[in-house]
Amino acid sequence: MDFATWLAFFAACWAISISPGAGAVAAMTAGLHHGFRRGYVTIAGLILGIWTQMVVVGVGLGALVATSALAFQTIKWVGVAYLVYLGVQQWRAPAKPLADDAQGEGPAFRPWAALVRGWAVNAVNPKGTVFLLAVLPQFLDLSAALAPQYLVMALSLGFTDFVVMGGYAGLASQVLRSLRSEAHVRATQRLFGTLFVVAGAFLALFKRGA
Predict the structure, then answer these.
(1) Which domain holds residue 151?
(2) Which residue of 50, 55, 85, 87 pairs with 196 in a disulfide if CB–CB is 3.0 to 4.6 A?
(3) Of 122, 92, 115, whose CA–CA distance to 30 is shortest?
(4) What tens digit of pLDDT does each residue of 58-117 get?
(5) Residue 72 CB coordination number (10 Å)
(6) Closest to 118 (Cα-Cα) out of 48, 52, 196, 32
(7) How large is the angle between the packed helices 22-58 and 146-173, nearest 10 degrees?
(8) Does residue 160 lie within any of the structural domains?
(9) Which of 186, 152, 195 is nearest to 27 (CA)?
(10) Total domain count for the chain?
(11) What secondary structure letter does DSSP report for 207?
(12) 29 close to 188: Cβ distance less than 8 angstroms
C-alpha cells in the first residue's frame, strides 16, 4: 500500500470511527459508569471487535455473510438481541450515585466482562462486515501481498477508534461529577439503555443491499 492510498484510507478511518453507532454508545456508557481510564477496557474490546470483523472479511467469510441470507439473518438477529439486552440491563441497573474513576466507587468494574462486552458490540454486527467488505477492497493493491495491507488497515482503524472512542468515553465521564442523585442516575441509565435499543432497531432494519 503506497502512502497516498494509505492517507486516503486513514481519512476514511476517521469518518468510520466518528460515525455514531453502537460502539459510540458502548464507549460513552463505559465512561459514564467507570470513568475515562477504565472506559478504555471497553474501548479495547471494541477495537478487538473491529479487528475480528476485518479478519472475517480478510479470509473471505465476509462474502458469505453478504451473500447468504441465512448467515446474514442469523448474525444480524444475534446482534440485535445483544444490543437490546444491553439496553434492558441499563434500564434495570440499580440507580446508585456514581463516582469518579479515582474513588473506585459506583458500579462494580469487571475488566474481562467490560472487554468481552465491547468486543461483542462490534464483532456481532453484520452491518460492520458488509460495510468493511465494501470499503476495504477499494484500498487494496491486489498485485501485492494482502496480509501486510490488512495489518496496516487494522492498525490504522484501531488507532482512530482508540482516539475517537476515548473522546466519547472522556466526554461521558465528565457527567459523573453531576450525577449525585438517584433521579439523575436513573435518567442517564435509561437514556443510554434507550440508545442501545435504538441501535438494535437500526440493525434490525439493515439489509444487505443497504
Answers:
(1) 22-205
(2) 87
(3) 115
(4) 887 656 666 777 877 887 787 788 778 877 877 877 766 554 444 444 557 889 999 999
(5) 20
(6) 48
(7) 170
(8) yes
(9) 195
(10) 1
(11) -
(12) no
